[in-house]
Amino acid sequence: QYVSDFAWSSATSAYQIEGGWNADGKGESIWDNFTHAGRSHNNETGDDACLSYYKYKDDVQLLRNLSVGYYRFSLSWPRIIPTGEINDGINQPGVDYYNNLIDELLANNIQPMVTLYHWDLPQALQDKYEGWLDQSGIIVKAFADYTDFCFKTYGDRVKFWITFNEPFITAQLGYGVAAFAPGHYSPGEGVYYAAHSIIKSHAQAYHIYNNTYRESQKGQIGITLNSNWADPMTRTDLEHVEASQRNLAFATGWFADPIFGTGDYPDIMRYNVSTFYLFPKLSKAEKLLNKGTSDFFGLNHYTSHLWLSSASTWLYQVPWGIRKLLIWIKRTYGDPVIYITENGISEHFSDGLDDDIRVNYYKNYINEVLKAIKEDDVNVKGYTAWSLMDNFEWAEGYSERFGLHWVNFTDPERTRIPKKSASYYRSLAGNHEFKSPRERDEFHYGTF
Length: 448
Ligand code: PNW
Fold this sequence. Notes:
Order of helices and strands: EHHHEHHEHHEHHEEHHHEEHEEHEEEEH
Number of helices: 15
Strand content: 5-15%
Helix content: 40-55%
Bound molecules: 4-nitrophenyl beta-D-glucopyranoside
Number of strands: 14
């Protein structure tokens, strides 16, 4: 009675941990530009962050001590290709940094799970083409060339690729309300065009891998979507049930329907949006290109609407929400393989090593994942704790800590210390599989 081959993992992203923002020929990213303009909390930046550009070997030892078999990290596009366009040249020291990290992981028996785009677009692509707003095809081509280079360079050792992390957040926060880089304000219209070129870019990268590299490299490639569970206030009132469905379609279906479903945007979204704004169309050929372009459903899940809170204004603790969401994904998208690529909770900057809140969060959420696997037959193959260590939390700067390891940001060495949650997580991952006994189902899952 256990789930074997379960992938236990922990995650970070390049801009949030690396530092070395202009080291050894790295190009500027939209997050360098955004934070240097003072647009994050307290004028904080990722210029140094956790200094993982220099301390990656220490990070690998943290992972080893957690007993995880996988590490999810991201590649910084401008560290590899400074202007974003491959014809302008690559940056060899940046390429080597990831070669070294990957080799160090494998030498320690940890498999890399590599995200190709975790929000740090080369600034030059934003300046020249308006980044993801570009509809001419240039941005899609630039991303395709970059991913092709990565498959060619790292694919002999990397067997798990994620094209985009949370395109919803890029579109809405980056090009909608301007809370994230590049800080472009265009809610209601720009957001749909940004999403449009991201979906096309994802599909291109998938096909490049599929056609050119899959056979020899034998890896898998997919996308990671963020999704909150939207619980209807009552199940007996159709209006509330429909509101919940609408929320899931706008937040998750926006990307999941094109990639895991019909190839096209959800109808309900097109009808609602096109009443007020221009809503981009996917041609018949594009729909075919989108459909089925992910070997797994990468899921980042933190919260549901709306219960116990945390240090992040948007994050409420609702363990059973993850189980309902997993069941919804299974039913809506034809029972895909699911990897949970992020789950976790924040504390305040002043909080320390006794992170009981995080221990409880992981205990309760992972227990619900276990129920989804055992009771509901959801095909979950892996679980990833966000984050390996405290890091630069985007617009919130260093004010929120998500780490299993505590980082001393006033120490030039950025010392990392395991929190209570690190030993708790180790106790789960160290078994390499789920062995806990079944728990009885206390909820009723009949209505969606
Ligand atoms: C995700 N929201 O971001 C990202 O993938 C991580 O880089 C990040 O550190 C982590 O979750 C914790 O925030 C999100 O406002 C950022 O709803 C903001 C939101 C959701 C996810």
